[in-house]
Specification:
By secondary structure, this protein is an all-alpha fold. The chain has five helices and no strands.
Length: 125
């Protein structure tokens, strides 16, 4: 239970950031079922993953060899953490909303990682 609360404490601030696309908000407003909500989450996750990949490539191009290796290693570790953490959320929440919980976890963490790398790429902006 203690680990579950720590994971929730980690994810809660991520859900507060409001950097999702306007299309996502519109999609969720219109969604009338968990299937529709899941489709909205998947579409936004694709958009945020594309954003993450774009900024990752831009940052890699800007860095020297040693920082590139560090970023590559950290990114691989981050992906493994995100996937394991979100799998945990699915298992912990259970029930009919488990898939939505897992999808929101991936979306939130992907969006936040993209924003983090954007701050590294362009400090002070």
């Amino acid at each position: 239970m203690k680990h579950y609360l720590m994971a929730l404490a980690f994810c809660a601030p991520l859900a507060l950031a409001d950097d999702n696309s306007p299309a996502y908000a519109q999609c969720m407003d219109k969604a009338s079922s968990t299937v529709a909500m899941s489709a909205c989450i998947q579409a936004e996750t694709k958009l945020q993953d594309d954003r993450l990949n774009r900024v990752y490539k831009q940052l890699m191009a800007k860095l020297g060899a040693a920082p590139q290796k560090s970023l590559r290693d950290v990114q691989r570790q981050w992906i493994a953490y995100r996937d394991a953490n979100c799998k945990f959320h699915v298992q912990a929440s259970g029930g009919t909303l488990a898939q939505l919980e897992g999808g929101m976890c991936v979306l939130d963490q992907t969006r936040e990682r993209a924003a983090e790398l954007e701050r590294v790429l362009s400090p002070g902006q």
